[in-house]
Amino acid sequence: MAAKKKKANPVGRPTKYSKTMLNKANHYVENIEDYNQVIPSVAGLAICLNVNRSTIYEWADGDKHPEFSNTLSALSDFQEMHLLNNGLNGTFNSTITKLILTNHGYSEKNEAQDDEPAPPLSITFEVKDPVQEISITNAKT
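Above: the chain sequence. Below: its structure as tokens.
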């Protein structure tokens, strides 16, 4: 008979990830006001789940927990939506909103750059129907 292979003992702490953690994470994202927070964030989610931020990214990375990856993506979408809506209606501080939206790919672009020379200005005049004779009249004659 062939000898049975023993499974290697996992190194480190066992994961806290469970269906309960996933449900709690989804509740956090969808009901942010229940947590007295203005917008959902990875830091807020980490505190809610009582895990490190790195654990959140670990759970969302790879094929281990695709449903958690979807939750983290939803968190990002909800955050962007809250920022846009509240930034546009003036509820949020515009500077902070603009700063956080850079994490979502938004940027402020200036048309002209200081280090680029302006293109030369070209002006063309065209004279049509030149005046043949100019007469000046004086009303006091």
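The chain has five helices and no strands.
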